[in-house]
Design a protein that fits this description.
The protein is mainly β. It has one domain. About 10% of the residues lie in helices and about 40% in strands. It is built from three helices and 13 strands; from the N terminus they run H-E-E-E-E-E-H-E-E-E-E-E-E-E-E-H. It has a seven-stranded mixed beta sheet. The chain has a six-stranded antiparallel beta sheet with strand order 1-3-7-8-9-6. The chain is globular and about 45 Å long. The chain starts with a helix and ends with a helix.
């Protein structure tokens, strides 16, 4: 039997760390293009600066993330690399910090979309794809010893920067549980059906990792 929205939202989303504030947007640079390698910042160019962009994955599972070196960023924006640390709620959560500039363009979004068929975002419907992203990167999310290749991106929504996550390869399945934009939980399940990565509309930089049975009633 499918569990109530309140149970799922409280279980999955509560696993996500609540301490990190939503990241603020920066000034934009018009007419920027995109490459898959970092480009040096142009001295004096408005909107070109490096920020610590933090994504939190909360979980009661044992999780880790390893960046594989792949990324795409808007041309002219700085790239300082990716680090991981502890973070989030649930006991084993992690934080992923991307040192990079923030300027959206179509290139990183296309790079992201080419690598996943099942993306989720904290403020988007299922099966939507980003039109512009500040940057995107690939790596392996390990849950209880099993590695799952994923792609991560940061975009812009309203006054905030939002985040996207998608599984690489076949077998990932996206879904939504809820009946209101205030309570909808967007999720994607791993190819083996064991785990779900969930996003919640109110939190722009926080996702949860939970047992997939919370979403399929198993």
């Amino acid at each position: 039997m499918i569990r109530s929205l309140g149970t799922i939202a409280a279980t999955a989303v509560a696993l996500v760390g609540m301490a990190t504030p939503v990241l603020a947007a920066t000034d934009s640079v018009a007419g920027s293009a995109t490459t898959t390698a970092s480009a040096p910042a142009v001295p004096g160019l408005v909107g070109v600066s490096e920020h610590s962009n933090v994504l939190e994955l909360g979980s009661s599972q044992a999780v880790s993330f390893t960046w594989d070196g792949g990324y795409s960023i808007t041309e002219g924006q700085p790239w300082g690399g990716v680090t991981t640390g502890s973070g989030g709620q649930g006991g084993n959560g992690i934080s992923i910090t991307v040192e990079a500039g923030r300027e959206g363009s179509a290139g990183p979004a296309a790079w992201f979309s080419q690598r996943t068929a099942s993306p989720i975002a904290d403020d988007e419907g299922v099966e939507n794809f980003p039109e512009e992203l500040n940057f995107a990167l690939t790596g392996t999310l390990t849950i209880n010893g099993t590695g799952y290749p994923i792609v991560i991106g940061q975009g812009h929504s309203g006054y905030n920067n939002n985040w996207w996550i998608g599984g690489q390869g076949e077998g990932w399945k996206g879904g939504v549980y809820g009946t209101s934009m205030l309570t909808d939980v967007m999720y994607t399940t791993t190819p083996d059906g064991k785990y779900a990565i969930a996003a919640e509309t109110a939190m722009m930089n926080q996702f949860g990792i939970a047992d997939a049975s919370l979403f399929n009633g198993g």
